[in-house]
């Protein structure tokens, strides 16, 4: 049986997050509903399992979306789940009423035309800076990860990103990626 890559990511994230104990409603140290969108976007979560806890709680949870005042926005990009916010979020000295979830984080969607200026303000180094495409990243945390068995050893990475995508012309996406890269 072949699994879809997104299913593999979610399965791996679930396994890495830790077991749920019968006496607790969650295995996570942090109540996901206590996290602010601004903190998630600005890489202020303490670790990848905290992000995983939030992502699992948020996924397919209508109450979580109401909690943050989010309404789904139809997106032409199959790799982003986009939402309009009832109350704009302030992050990186800007405000926006749009956010997008990627496979590993949350991005603010800003109506700007110059990703280079925002990247410079945030100390982000460009990986791609070409006409029509910008992608930059700054590592916040990069540390060994021990998932408890040899099969789950790797690197925990939290990085601040600025990018553009062709499906969002005139927009700049900026936010945080939380992931664990497992060794081959």
Helix content estimate: 10-25%
Portion in beta strands: 35-45%
Question: What oligomeric assembly is this protein in?
Answer: single chain
Spatial strand arrangement across the major sheet: 1-2-3-4-8-7-6-5
Q: In total, how many beta strands?
A: 8
Report the C-alpha radius of gyration, rounded.
Answer: 17 Å
- Main sheet? 8 strands, antiparallel
What are the secondary-structure elements, in order, as H or E? Answer: HHHHEEEEHEEEE
Low-confidence stretches: 1-27
Number of helices: 5
The SS-based structural class is: alpha+beta
Terminal residue distance: 21 Å
Shape: globular
Give the count of structural domains: 1
Average predicted local confidence, pLDDT: 85
Report on this model:
This protein has helices at 5-17, 37-41, 48-58, 62-67, 115-121, and strands at 70-73, 81-91, 94-101, 105-110, 125-130, 133-146, 153-163, 172-182. An eight-stranded antiparallel β-sheet has the order 1-2-3-4-8-7-6-5. The protein is α+β, with helices and mostly antiparallel strands. It has one domain. It is 23% helix and 39% strand. The protein is built from five helices and eight strands, in the order H-H-H-H-E-E-E-E-H-E-E-E-E. Strand 3 (94-101) and strand 4 form a beta hairpin. The two termini are 21 Å apart.
What's the arrangement of secondary structure elements?
Blueprint (H helix, E strand, L loop, with lengths): L4 H13 L19 H5 L6 H11 L3 H6 L2 E4 L7 E11 L2 E8 L3 E6 L4 H7 L3 E6 L2 E14 L6 E11 L8 E11 L2
Helix pairs in contact: 1-3
